[in-house]
């Protein structure tokens, strides 16, 4: 299953991964065009950071906060790692995509 959703100046692609044997549905958020890192013309880095913070804030309010500075475990409902949002439940990934579509 792969999907692509535009969020202001971000691109979101999805994939399925495993953490300690547990299946997670991952939304990869990037500023990438092809294989080159770039900032779109006329868009500041602050605007891109603001987009990212909107995603995080929405996840905190929708799925709850995680303890800071703890490694994710297979029991976590969701977490952020390396520009990706990991969701334990497929329905949570779908909610994320529908919200930011």
What is the topology, as strand order, of the major beta sheet? Answer: 1-2-3-7-6
Low-confidence stretches: none
Number of strands: 7
**General form:** globular
| Secondary-structure content class | alpha+beta
Number of helices: 2
> Main sheet?
5 strands, antiparallel
- Rg over CA atoms, rounded to whole Å, is 14 Å
What is the percentage of strand-forming residues? 25-35%
Q: Would you list the SSEs in sequence order as H and E? A: EEEEEHEEH
The N- and C-terminal alpha carbons lie at a distance of 16 Å
Helix content: 25-40%
Query: How many domains is the backbone divided into?
Result: 1
Overall average pLDDT: 79
Account of the 3D structure:
There is one protein chain. The two termini are 16 Å apart. The strands form two sheets. The chain has a five-stranded antiparallel beta sheet with strand order 1-2-3-7-6, covered by helices on one side. A two-stranded antiparallel ribbon has the order 4-5. The chain is built from two helices and seven strands. It is an alpha+beta fold and 101 residues long. The protein has helices at residues 45-63, 90-99; strands at 4-7, 10-19, 22-30, 32-33, 36-37, 78-81, 84-87. The chain is globular, with a radius of gyration of 14 Å. The protein has one domain. The mean pLDDT is 79.
